[in-house]
Amino acid sequence: MSIHHHHRESADAPAEPPFPITSIVDTNVILVANGQHPAVTQACRACCIAWLQRIMKEGRVALDDAYLIMTEYQHKTHTSTGDGVGDQFVRWVLHEFDNPARVDQVRIDPDEWKGFAAFPADQRLVSFDPSDRKFVAVSRCHPERPPILQAADSKWLDWSGPLAEYGVNILFLCGNELQQFHQHKFGI
């Protein structure tokens, strides 16, 4: 007789991921912190706010040196007039962009087929959103391989396994909700 032990995280109290020194912040974390993603709970929004505030206080971010991530941040937020924590974070990044103590500017080379040379050539990632490939490329080109913070884009759940095989780790800040979004959206 064999006994199988199944370990699973408690749905009531998700474990707080350890705070990384350097992070790559997906745009949806900023939007959730700003309250621009109405489908998430207040707990998810509070978590995103806390992470962005902690990064501004004591963390570092990694961005591409071609300003692609910053352009996306600015396009989806109100950096001059917005008072959300996401807007504050984007203003902070703009202010610190040339400060190597707070921002790592990472070179990511374009690629005609994959979007970026550092994006894995893996059949399981063929449907990966082209606009999100820059985050993966920054992680793979950074010497520390910083994690990508993710809040409410459930597609990343399917991609996190294959990406981990290439040294790209995703920190899901709203894991339980993400599972529910995924089940609702894809039925799995």
What would you say this structure looks like, in words?
The chain is of the alpha/beta class. The chain has one domain (26-186). It has helices at residues 27-33, 42-58, 68-76, 85-96, 133-141, 155-165, 175-186; strands at 22-25, 60-64, 103-106, 110-111, 115-116, 148-150, 170-172. It starts with 21 loop residues before the first strand and ends with a helix. The relative contact order is 0.18.
Notable characteristics:
two-stranded antiparallel ribbon, alpha/beta, 41% helix, 188 residues, disordered N terminus, globular
Low-pLDDT residue intervals, each spanning 5 or more residues: 1-15
- Tell me about the biggest sheet? 5 strands, parallel
User: How much of the polypeptide forms β-strand, as a percent range?
Assistant: 5-15%
Count of distinct structural domains: 1
| Class per helix and strand makeup | alpha/beta
- What kind of assembly state do the chains in view correspond to? single chain
The Rg value, from CA coordinates, equals: 17 Å
Going across the biggest sheet, name each strand in turn: 3-2-1-6-7
Query: What is the count of β-strands?
Result: 7
Order of helices and strands: EHHEHHEEEHEHEH
Helical amount:
40-55%
Overall body shape: globular
Mean pLDDT: 86
What is the straight-line distance between the termini? Answer: 31 Å
- What is the overall number of helices? 7
